[in-house]
Design brief:
The complex is a heterodimer.
Chain A lengths: L1 E7 L2 E9 L4 E6 L2 E10 L3 E6 L2 E10 L2 E5 L4 E7 L19 E4 L4 E6 L6 E2 L4 E7 L2 E6 L4 E6 L6 E2 L4 E7 L2
Antiparallel strand pairs in A: 1-2, 1-8, 2-3, 3-4, 4-5, 5-6, 6-7, 7-8, 9-16, 10-12, 10-15, 11-14, 12-13, 14-16
Chain B lengths: L7 E4 L3 H13 L3 E6 L7 H5 L2 E4 L12 H11 L3 E3 L9 H10 L2 E2 L4 H8 L1 H11 L13 H11 L3 E5 L9 E3 L5 H16 L4 E5 L5 E9 L5 E13 L2 E7 L6 H17 L4 E9 L5 E7 L6 H8 L3 H9 L14 E8 L1 E2 L5 E2 L2 E2 L2 E3 L6 E5 L6 E2 L6 E9 L2 H14 L1 E3 L5 H9 L1 H5 L6 H4 L1 H4 L9 H20 L10 H4 L9
Helix pairs in contact in B: 4-5, 12-13
Classes of the chains: A mainly beta, B alpha+beta.
């Protein structure tokens, strides 16, 4: 029996698993043992039967987090194998120390920068406007702070995750 | 008009609408010609067409909006007709006129009707003269001062709209005078980028209106008919997302009066081919002409589902000079459409371009999927993030709703973020289920509709997690890490760091 720590939709859980033969497993959840029949289907699907209940999941890896797409359910899953820490992320933005970094959530073109270095911003303050897929989208500040640096100018094409603006958090 | 047989159709568009038009062409035995920009080389519409011709460049202006290039291709390909789809050149009178001059059939209305109805303020004046009720508004406005004065005269809130516009592009609602200048500038920018025309005008913003439109068909022999309404009140940022017919607000009397007004509107502009007359309807069921879309609408399939009429087929026949039949088939049952977008509802609906990893499309009774994508397709960032239109038919609205929920649940699309779950929440929302909604539905219920993703742990999912963890370990033990290219989902997910942080 092997034990894993997982975080499923934000809730930590410990699961035990013992493989049997031919796609069958014994899985222990909360002290109860279940007979699980699990088959991989193609590269990206997992078909499960647990106590005659089915679960068909499309698996989409996304930066260390699995997205599981079921019929009427969606889940986010993080797995730790005990040798490493679970890849828990500290929520959006950066840690408490350094500047907050505003990144592009998608590739696009900068239409307008609405702040300048030294400006004070509050939650909801408009920072810049980015155009992608024919729509203009305004990026707003999530917190309070002072604009430390602006990394882009109107007309720039940016890639996903490109750093746009740095903000020094303030009380 | 002379009768003229069409044999080969160039579809001057991309994505799902090009594929949809090609399907009817194929059924009619007509050859199809696709055009494509550089990012669209392996787009679905290129793969499905009989012939395909490149449009060098990537911006709309140098590709799908380049009239000269497209007309040259039509000539080279020997296409005797051009179908413009929606957007791009579909409501461009100069293009329709250029087709006529070159002897190519434009599958759409005559340029005169496009021009008249496309200039929204002119259209309003013509409708007013024809006795069709209109929303209070202004002619095109030049200066900021004039705009401010007119806004004050009409009274806030006002809508800023693109004079050359359509499809909600550029449109903005303004609540108070201090927001007017910035909104006007943004509207002009978007309008200029989308239509090459930065003129704007103002309209009174009606409180809690329904957006209801009528499908019309007109032939070149003077016959104009309507094929009932589509309810399009579920909108986000003035973009329709869910449409249905019949409208839950509709009564027989209202349909008769609005249908007659729609036919009158088409007649007043000398309309030929398929078109849509849009109205705003207030809570007291007073209706006002909003605009006429002189093209096939995105949401045309709901009308096709209840009438059984293939609107693209009728467009082609009318363009050949054929007469419409005297009576259109009566509508039967109810149909709903959901627009599936590559966007992230959890992140302010940011477009989410990327590669489609897994695609399972719903099927079964009464389900239609008009899609422009496939597994492995990389959705380009240059264009609208519309991936597909999921349409269902049911004997009545209740059955159609249940079918839509079922079909959305069958839909599996991974690799890019989509609004599929968001759509499911819309069609399951109690007010939507009751049919009690107007154009404020999305804004009013935003919190309920934007519940965070993740349905919480249960036994089968935890069991899946255990199995996944086990299989991951097996994979890691079996093979040392190799470059990511070509790895399956099983291996790739084990790597932290990629994706969003």
């Amino acid at each position: 029996m092997k034990t894993y720590n997982v975080v499923l939709d934000g809730a930590a859980a410990e699961v035990g698993i013992q493989p049997l033969s031919g796609g069958r497993y014994q899985v222990v959840i909360d002290g109860t043992t279940y007979d699980v029949d699990a088959r991989t289907v193609g590269a990206d699907f997992l078909s499960l039967i647990v106590d005659n209940r089915t679960r068909d999941l499309a698996l989409s890896p996304n930066g260390g987090v699995w997205e599981l797409h079921g019929k009427d359910r969606r889940h986010h899953l993080l797995i730790s194998d005990g040798r490493r820490k679970a890849w828990l992320r500290s929520g959006a933005g950066s840690g408490p120390a350094g500047p907050a970094v505003v990144k592009a959530a998608m590739p696009g073109k900068i239409v307008q920068v609405e702040v300048k270095e030294g400006d004070r911003v509050a939650p909801g303050s408009g920072l810049l406007i980015i155009e992608a897929m024919k729509m203009e989208n305004e990026i707003r500040s999530e917190g309070t702070g002072i604009v430390r640096a602006i990394r882009v100018k109107p007309g720039d094409a940016v890639e996903r995750d490109a750093v746009l603006i740095e903000i020094d958090p303030a009380e | 008009m002379n009768k003229r047989k069409i044999t080969k159709v160039l579809v001057a568009n991309r994505g799902e609408i090009s594929v949809r038009v090609q399907r009817t062409c194929r059924e009619l035995g007509l050859a199809t010609v696709a055009v494509f920009s550089e990012p669209d080389r392996i787009a679905l519409h290129v793969r499905t067409a009989d012939e395909a011709y490149p449009l060098p460049g990537s911006s709309p202006r140098e590709t799908y909006l380049d009239q000269g290039k497209i007309l040259d291709i039509a000539k080279r390909a020997g296409a005797d007709a051009i179908h413009p789809g929606y957007g791009f050149l579909s409501e461009n009178a100069a293009f329709a006129a250029a087709c006529r001059e070159r002897g190519v059939v434009f599958i759409g209305p005559p340029p005169e009707a496009i021009e008249l109805m496309g200039e929204k303020t002119q259209a309003r004046a013509r409708m007013e003269r024809a006795g069709v009720p209109i929303v209070p508004g202004t002619p095109p406005l030049k200066s900021r001062e004039e705009t401010a004065a007119e806004a004050a005269r009409i009274g806030y809130p006002v809508l800023i709209k693109a004079a050359a516009g359509g499809g909600g592009k550029g449109m903005r609602r303004v609540e108070k005078p201090e927001d007017l200048a910035a909104a006007t500038d943004a509207c002009r920018r978007e309008s200029s980028a989308a239509f090459g025309d930065d003129r704007i005008y103002l309209e009174k913003y009606l409180e809690e209106p329904h957006h209801i439109e009528f499908q019309v068909l007109a032939d070149s022999h003077g016959r104009v008919v309507h094929l009932n309404e589509r309810e399009c009140s579920v909108q986000r940022r003035h973009q329709k997302i869910v449409e249905e017919t019949p409208s839950p607000l509709m009564t027989d009397d209202l349909r008769r009066r609005m249908g007659a007004a729609a036919v009158k509107a088409a007649e007043a502009c000398g309309y030929v081919n398929a078109g849509t007359v849009e109205f705003l309807v207030d809570a007291a069921r007073r209706f006002y002409f909003l605009e006429m879309n002189t093209r096939l609408q995105v949401e045309h399939p709901v009308t096709e589902m209840v009438t059984g009429v293939d609107l693209v087929e009728r467009q082609i026949r009318v363009a050949e000079g054929a007469a419409l039949e005297a009576g259109m088939p009566a509508a039967r049952g109810a149909a709903i459409e959901c627009r599936i977008y590559a966007e992230d509802p959890g992140c302010n609906f940011m477009p989410s371009p990327g590669t489609v990893r897994t695609l399972v499309v719903p099927g079964g009774p009464g389900v239609r999927d008009d899609s422009g994508i496939y597994e492995g397709f990389t959705i380009p960032m240059e264009y609208d993030p519309l991936l597909s239109k999921l349409v269902v038919w049911g004997e009545d609205r209740r059955r159609a709703l249940a079918r839509m929920v079922r079909a959305l649940q069958e839909y599996r699309l991974t690799g890019v973020r989509t609004n599929i779950r968001y759509l499911e929440r819309i069609v399951r929302h109690p007010d939507f289920v009751k049919g009690e909604y107007d154009t404020h539905f999305i804004a009013r219920h935003q919190d309920a509709l934007l519940r965070p993703e993740g349905d919480g742990p249960d036994v089968p999912t935890l069991a899946a997690a255990a199995v996944l963890a086990w299989l991951e370990d097996e994979k890691r033990a079996a093979a040392p890490p190799t470059p990511q290219a070509g790895m399956s989902a099983w291996k790739r997910a084990g790597r932290p760091g990629g994706g969003e942080g």
